[in-house]
User: What shape does this take?
Amino acid sequence: MTKNVVVIASGETERRSLPHLLAHLQTEDIFLVEVRIPPGNKALSVNMAERLIKALWFERINNPPDKFVLLVDTDGKSPEDVLSPFREQVPPRLGPNISPQIQFASAQWHLEACYFADVAGLRSYLERAPGSVDASKPDEIHNPKLHLKHLLGDRVYTAVISEEIAKNSMRGRLRSGVQASTGSLMPSGMESRSAKMRASFSFQLNSRTALALGGVAISDIENRKNRAYRQTLKASP
Assistant: This one.
């Protein structure tokens, strides 16, 4: 059964990059139909999230999404502290006429942690090693966006560059035949190939909160992700 998902995110980097990072979900009939962000570089507040969800719902009233995922950056703060106002205030504001599931997710630092999770793809794009970071624990990298900017040297990091890195990562996985690991992902239980495939159908950005686009409940992501990604590599033809 096809599932259409809309992500509400904070900025242009997410709008450009997430469609590439999550493109593999289409193989399981899960479609990221849009990443909607605040206009004019405005902050993603509770009021803004309400406005974006309502606007998109009524724009697509004839074919509404099945799920909204509200994704926020925590910038090192407690995810629960950052997400609580959204969880508590957004659903009641939407009223009875807006009916899809709404899920809340956070990036512990930034989307850029995903690129360090795919160290081979990042190395390919940068044409250099990713520096003195533990790429096996991307969510523990302090301020990955700043570290990536340093690695780029004279190149200015922009949303366009982020999209290029995401595209490069996706192309590399397709060439190698590896089921994609998009940053911090994956459910536990990799006993079967079906489970290995489902591993790549949920995308999350830290070890506390799952961005379960495929409807898979996930926790303790970072440990599971590293184990799942290694097993997926071994199982790939």
Notes: The two ends are 27 Å apart (CA to CA).
